[in-house]
Amino acid sequence: DADRCESCYGAESEDIRCCNTCDDVREAYRRRGWAFKNPDTIEQCKREGFSQKMQEQKNEGCQVYGFLEVNKVAGNFHFAPGKSFQQSHVHVHDLQSFGLDNINMTHYIKHLSFGRDYPGIVNPLDGTDVTAQQASMMFQYFVKVVPTVYMKVDGEVVRTNQFSVTRHEKIANGLIGDQGLPGVFVLYDTCHPEEN
Ligand SMILES: *[C@@H]1O[C@H](CO)[C@@H](O)[C@H](O)[C@H]1NC(C)=O
């Protein structure tokens, strides 16, 4: 029935009045800041075989690429399983539906740079190949970004950044929050020229 209006299990809002699919319910939960814990108790998800799909995909990896525009202040970006949402001003991921205890964070960083490249620039994370020795590891890359001006012989000026990095890893304890979310985290900070 195209005109049906199924329940959002209490997460209805102005924008989302009906949840006719499992994704609708997830989105409604996400906007409320609710964790999406038991897909098997949600009719729409049962109907669509959500848990089954998760099972089928559980050994798959993914390839991520793109650009981020950020302010020149400290921050982080991360690759972690689950949909993210805000809960009491904390950024969390609803990874319960993936099974908390067996996430393999093996990863390969093909390229990461902060700004344009110039001839001979060294981006120290390029080609980083890390095998997770244990399940549900949290990998952290602490990056110090150094603003750099490169002048070509023809006078063209490239304003870009170099960076240095230290890596830290630990076993995520499975709790949600910055204590232990399995994933790959890049935590960056910039050196301000006036400090030097
Ligand atoms: C994670 O996957 C990689 C690549 O398939 C494998 O070498 C590694 O042993 C796995 N780690 C765990 C903890 O299962």
Automatic annotation (TrEMBL):
Cellular localisation: Endoplasmic reticulum membrane; Endoplasmic reticulum-Golgi intermediate compartment membrane; Golgi apparatus membrane; Golgi apparatus, cis-Golgi network membrane
InterPro entries linked: Erv (IPR045888), Erv_C (IPR012936)
Keyword set includes 4Fe-4S: no
Recorded GO CC terms: COPII-coated ER to Golgi transport vesicle; endoplasmic reticulum membrane; endoplasmic reticulum-Golgi intermediate compartment membrane; Golgi membrane
Any Gene Ontology biological process: retrograde vesicle-mediated transport, Golgi to endoplasmic reticulum
Secretion signal span: none
Pfam families membership: COPIIcoated_ERV (PF07970)
Record keywords, A-Z: Endoplasmic reticulum, ER-Golgi transport, Golgi apparatus, Transport
Bilayer topology: Multi-pass membrane protein
Endoplasmic reticulum vesicle transporter C-terminal domain mapped to chain residues: 8-190
PANTHER family: ENDOPLASMIC RETICULUM-GOLGI INTERMEDIATE COMPARTMENT PROTEIN (PTHR10984), ENDOPLASMIC RETICULUM-GOLGI INTERMEDIATE COMPARTMENT PROTEIN 3 (PTHR10984:SF25)
Membership in a protein family: Belongs to the ERGIC family.
Function summary: Plays a role in transport between endoplasmic reticulum and Golgi.
Annotated protein name in UniProt: Endoplasmic reticulum-Golgi intermediate compartment protein
Protein species of origin: Nothoprocta perdicaria (Chilean tinamou)
Lineage: Eukaryota, Metazoa, Chordata, Craniata, Vertebrata
